[in-house]
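Standup notes
- DV: blocked on the single-chain target, sequence here:
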Amino acid sequence: MANKKTRALTEDEFYLIIETIDAGFITDKGIKIKPNHRIAVALTLQANIGLRIGDIVNLRLSDIVRDGERYRLDIVEQKTKKKREFTVQNYILTCLQTYALNNNIKSNQKLFDITVRQVQKHLQITAEHLGLENVGTHSFRKFFAVSIYNSNGYNVELVRELLQHSTTAVTQHYLSVSPRLVEDALAKHIKLPT
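- DV (later): unblocked, structure below
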């Protein structure tokens, strides 16, 4: 669930959660949680394209359209009502096509015939099993944002654009990057006479 306590995942946590959901597990109470490839793929997609989980569970292959030499999303985000037209990398598209083919999902059908609540509940059980706190579906969107931020020279404006936030202030709060930027700026601004 998206709330202020939900945090971004680390890369190790991301892989651990996906692998655990994909393999299934037995809880401390002896409850068997079956493997759930559908939820693993949905969360992986969220971590790779940065959409909210509500938009992920409603996604169809037909929402990815060819645009010249690239493929792009052609959706309107539920929450913001903004058109989303970013590129979908070929590797992600191939994974989704393979997933759809293996699960007999037609182009105009939802890729993930599940609810947001089902994904949240499964993730909550998994995170609890793994001993991870403050993890929800929004942690995967935040993981996307922080990864983009860190690998692109701490470019808040780029992350703002990809998340489609209204201001960089919203993005900075969302990423919790203000303290890091302040510390980096202070570290770079040492001017001592020799």
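- Follow-up: The domain at 11-152 is CATH 1.10.443.10 (hpI Integrase; Chain A).
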